[in-house]
């Protein structure tokens, strides 16, 4: 048969289509087609995520979007009591420290298995700890960030690192040795990064083989096929359709997940997440814009407000502006700020004026401290006493960013700037994009004053004031340029090393008072509660101050 | 013809090499960067230095560029740090390319299928109410910002009427099989027709939003071209020869009027990639446009480099195709 010129392309296209069709076969499972669960509840929870998970091995992750997914699949020795920042037993049922606080004995939960059938025991714990500590150069410099932060070093750093080894005392008892007593232990073990994973799967997937690939990191096969002990396990990550699907782990040791499937749909645009919720195609999403809270509630959704576990502060750099070396000037700035007003007008409902650099849920919070109340006259007279009337302050804020403690940096900044100008301070307005030089300039000490904050990783005072003022040479507040800096760093380290919890809390309370009344390295502004929003049909989700929500007890009615 | 195509492809390589250097230098001259984007508040000088070292960003620029070229020749562009961390940037391009192509084709078909007939009809009924209305309509199409239009479309058709999905490419509950990455095609090939239909439903709103500008431009160019051609002597000659209206319309008016329209379509196809950056972002449509926006926000050098280079290649190829189409429509070009 001879093909005409016009028919030839059609024939070619048909042949191609048929060939492709022959190769293509549906691999749907019989129940894969949007099946519905029995009874009144749906068999799937769909949650709107703002970003893609980095990978599924939480050890190399540092971002909330990854942890939101891995938290459903992995568990640590130490867990977090739902709705609080306090720790509770998880894979360890109890723990005990030696008298010097350097040896921690963990009794492990019996009858726990990883999904691949491997038993969870002391050998598995020690394998995990050793695996985390033993990182190559590339991983140590980058992705293993939480270990670097908490442990201060890796196996190659020897005695400098906090973690010093793990031994299996018996099958269900693991002993972890650390180089010095610290308030981080055992709290920091509740971090998602330090979850327990199957030794067999870690070995098989060459889990530690992180490589440098151009300007980024290459992760081993394991990072796509993790194995944990949690109530859900990974079903698939459809990168093209931007969805992560988890399915119930039927062999879970505890109460089984109430809903069979958990889908995270990645929707980077916030207003699109809201529309998806309104259209009923997702059951909830994280971090709704505080300006939308009321509207969302009015349309019948539930805004779940998390207890604030963060701090917004105005950083001060006495090395850049010598006038800031005078305590009177720093106090004057503080008295000039009308923070009551700021909290009422610019921050979400439930936000509080800060009295110190940590929220009240942290052990060591000093409840007797009173906020520096707004007092314009006092601010002016302090400035006069210090000879700093009409001083100039280069005060910066970030653009192109929204953080839980700072939903709208520009508006917050404008309010604070107005207050400062009202007492005669000349404010040099500076702004830079968050990822476009702002953070770098803060780190390099380029501003006199700046807006920044922190969301705590785990419930330890060291995670707040230790991070801010601990490293004398490295902290953003440049306390090394002040008379109190060296003592404050030393006192913080000493408080961190107190073994007795009560004594430690007392020491931190005293330090908080000193920081606020005598040192005032910066101005603690406020704590703002972030929120999640869920449809009225979704029940059982408990908002966590650490954003450590778990979905195993969640149901969605039809 | 073959020599012409080869020459253009060689030119393209030159463009890519020069552009790779420019993009490389431009990205690294931006303030901030990958390290800040990854570390956020946790950026202490020590962590910053460690991460820079781990990523090789502490090396001199020429060393970094040489490393980049050495890898690029092997088809490795480095791992993403922000869009899909750990995944090779070129993989991300390949994975997201079908989404953008699917969306662009849909939008282009929509723009052409509406723009040419409406443009022709408006020209034939010049100064009628239809003409006036169409011209105003096309002006609005160009003037309304895409994100606003997208918001309205979603609000009306997805949130209120529930006719169409708000965002994404396919309902995850369908558990559709992937073959080519073109979701509609995959659904047809695997005979999962519900999945194909669902993918089409997901294309409609972003397709409409993306089509507005090319539609308006194609409409106006067609109208102008038809008006011009209608006054040509050869049309009058054809009419006086007594040719049927159908032949005059098809062979004499439209065919000649289409030349500028084809060029416009070519240019608009390139423009669709730009439009896709906004449209895909607001519809959370996982294509190249969204990847570009995200990689810029997160300072994902590897991905941004690949995407910008591949955009340039796509532009050159589209222009080449337009030139070839030109030769097909206008035989005079072939002889030159």
Q: Summarize this, please?
A:
Chain A has 16 helices and 23 strands.
Task: Give short descriptive properties of this protein.
heterodimer; A: 558 residues; Dipeptide-binding Protein, domain 3; 2 domains; seven-stranded mixed beta sheet; six-stranded mixed beta sheet; 29% helix; B: 336 residues; MetI-like fold; globular
Description of the structure:
The complex is a heterodimer of chains A (558) and B (336). Chain A has helices at residues 7-23, 64-70, 122-133, 137-141, 145-151, 199-204, 270-279, 293-298, 327-336, 339-346, 376-385, 409-422, 434-443, 461-469, 485-496, 501-519, and strands spanning 44-49, 78-80, 87-89, 92-97, 103-108, 163-170, 173-178, 211-213, 216-218, 232-238, 243-248, 261-266, 284-286, 302-305, 310-316, 352-353, 392-399, 426-433, 449-455, 522-527, 531-534, 538-539, 555-556. Chain A is α+β, with helices and mostly antiparallel strands and 558 residues long. Chain A has two domains: 3-263 and 539-556, D-Maltodextrin-Binding Protein, domain 2 (3-Layer(aba) Sandwich); 310-527, Dipeptide-binding Protein, domain 3 (Roll). Chain A has a seven-stranded mixed sheet. A six-stranded mixed sheet of chain A has the order 16-20-15-19-17-18. In chain A, a hairpin with a 6-residue loop joins strand 2 and strand 3. Chain A is globular, with a radius of gyration of 26 Å. Chain A starts with 6 loop residues before the first helix and ends with a strand. Mean pLDDT of chain A is 91; it is low at 30-37. With 336 residues, chain B is mostly helical. Chain B folds into two domains: 2-73, no CATH class; 90-335, MetI-like (MetI-like fold), CATH 1.10.3720.10. In chain B, 77% of the residues lie in helices and 0% in strands. Chain B is globular, with a radius of gyration of 24 Å. Classes of the chains: A alpha+beta (558), B mainly alpha (336). Chains A and B meet through helix 1, helix 4, helix 5, strand 9 and strand 12 of A and helix 2, helix 3, helix 4, helix 5 and helix 7 of B.
């Amino acid at each position: 048969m001879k093909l005409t010129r016009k028919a030839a392309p059609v024939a070619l296209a048909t042949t191609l289509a048929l060939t492709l069709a022959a190769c293509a076969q549906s691999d749907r499972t019989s129940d894969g087609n949007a099946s519905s669960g029995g009874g009144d509840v749906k068999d799937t929870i769909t949650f709107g995520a703002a970003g893609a998970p980095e990978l599924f091995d939480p050890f190399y992750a540092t971002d909330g979007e990854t942890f939101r997914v891995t938290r459903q699949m992995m568990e640590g020795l130490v867990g977090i009591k739902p709705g609080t920042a306090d720790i509770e037993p998880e894979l360890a049922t109890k723990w005990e420290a030696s008298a010097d606080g350097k040896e921690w004995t963990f009794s492990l939960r019996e009858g726990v298995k990883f999904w691949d059938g491997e038993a969870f025991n002391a050998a598995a714990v020690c394998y995990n700890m050793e695996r985390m500590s033993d990182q190559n150069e590339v991983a140590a410099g980058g992705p293993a960030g939480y270990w670097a932060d908490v442990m201060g070093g890796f196996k190659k750093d020897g005695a400098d690192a906090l973690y010093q080894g793990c031994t299996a005392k018996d099958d269900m008892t693991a002993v972890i040795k650390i180089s010095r007593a610290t308030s981080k232990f055992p709290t920091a073990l509740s971090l998602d990064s330090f979850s327990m994973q199957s030794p067999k799967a870690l070995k098989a997937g060459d889990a530690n083989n992180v490589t440098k690939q151009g300007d980024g990191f290459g992760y081993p096969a394991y990072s796509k096929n993790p194995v944990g002990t949690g109530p859900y396990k990974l079903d698939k990550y459809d990168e093209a359709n931007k969805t992560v699907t988890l399915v119930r782990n039927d062999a879970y040791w505890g109460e089984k997940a109430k809903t069979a499937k958990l889908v995270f749909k990645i929707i980077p645009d916030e207003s699109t997440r809201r529309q998806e919720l309104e259209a009923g195609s997702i059951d909830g999403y994280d971090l709704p814009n505080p300006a939308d809270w009321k509207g969302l509630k009015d349309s019948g959704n539930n805004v779940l407000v998390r207890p604030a576990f963060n701090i917004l502060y105005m950083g001060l750099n006495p090395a850049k502006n010598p006038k800031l070396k005078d305590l009177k000037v720093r106090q004057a700035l503080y008295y000039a700020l009308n923070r009551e007003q700021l909290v009422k007008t610019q921050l979400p409902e439930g936000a509080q004026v800060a009295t110190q650099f940590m929220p009240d849920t942290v052990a060591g919070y000093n409840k007797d401290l009173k906020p520096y109340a707004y007092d314009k006259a006092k601010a002016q007279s302090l400035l006069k006493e210090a000879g700093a009337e009409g001083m100039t302050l280069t005060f910066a804020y970030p653009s192109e960013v929204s953080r839980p403690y700072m939903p709208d940096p520009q508006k917050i900044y404008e309010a604070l700037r107005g207050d400062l100008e009202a007492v005669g301070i000349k404010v040099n307005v500076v702004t830079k994009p968050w990822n476009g030089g702002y953070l770098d300039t803060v780190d390099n000490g380029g501003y006199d004053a700046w807006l920044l904050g922190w969301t705590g990783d785990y419930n330890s005072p060291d995670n707040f004031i230790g991070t801010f003022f601990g490293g004398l040479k490295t902290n953003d507040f440049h306390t090394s340029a002040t008379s109190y800096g060296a003592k404050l760093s030393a006192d913080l380290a000493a408080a961190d090393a107190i073994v007795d919890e009560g004594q430690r809390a007392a020491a931190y309370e005293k330090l908080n008072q000193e920081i606020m009344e005598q040192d005032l390295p910066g101005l603690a502004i406020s704590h703002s509660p972030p929120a999640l929003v869920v449809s009225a049909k979704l029940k059982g989700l408990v908002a966590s101050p650490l954003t450590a929500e778990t979905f195993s007890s969640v149901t969605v009615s039809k | 013809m073959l020599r012409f195509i080869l020459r253009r492809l060689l030119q393209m390589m030159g463009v890519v090499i020069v552009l790779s250097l420019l993009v490389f230098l431009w990205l690294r001259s931006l303030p901030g960067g990958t390290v800040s984007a990854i570390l956020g508040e946790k950026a202490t000088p020590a962590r910053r230095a460690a991460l820079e070292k781990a990523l090789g960003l502490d090396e001199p620029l020429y060393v970094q560029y040489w490393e980049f070229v050495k890898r690029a020749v092997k088809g490795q562009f480095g791992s993403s740090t922000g869009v899909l961390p750990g995944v090779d940037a070129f993989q991300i391009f390949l994975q997201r390319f079908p989404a953008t192509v699917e969306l662009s084709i849909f939008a282009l078909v929509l723009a052409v299928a509406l723009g040419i007939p409406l443009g022709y009809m408006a020209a034939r009924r010049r100064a009628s109410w239809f003409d006036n209305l169409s011209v105003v309509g096309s002006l609005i199409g160009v003037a309304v910002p895409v994100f606003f239009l997208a918001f309205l479309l979603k609000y009306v058709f997805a949130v209120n009427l529930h006719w169409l999905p708000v965002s994404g490419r396919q309902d995850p509950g369908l558990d559709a099989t992937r073959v080519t990455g073109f979701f509609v095609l995959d659904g047809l090939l695997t005979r999962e027709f519900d999945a194909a239909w669902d993918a089409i439903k997901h294309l409609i709103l972003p397709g409409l939003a993306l089509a507005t500008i090319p539609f308006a431009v194609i409409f106006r160019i067609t109208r102008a071209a038809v008006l011009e051609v209608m006054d040509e002597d050869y049309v009058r000659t054809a009419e006086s020869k007594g040719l049927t209206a159908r032949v005059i319309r098809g062979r004499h008016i439209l065919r000649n009027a289409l030349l500028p329209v084809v060029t416009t379509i070519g240019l608009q196809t390139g423009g669709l990639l730009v439009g896709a950056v906004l449209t895909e972002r607001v519809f959370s449509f996982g294509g190249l446009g969204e990847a570009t926006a995200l990689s810029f926000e997160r300072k994902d050098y590897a991905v941004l480099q690949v995407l910008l280079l591949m955009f340039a290649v796509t532009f050159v190829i589209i222009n080449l195709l337009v030139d070839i189409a030109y030769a097909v429509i206008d035989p005079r070009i072939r002889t030159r």
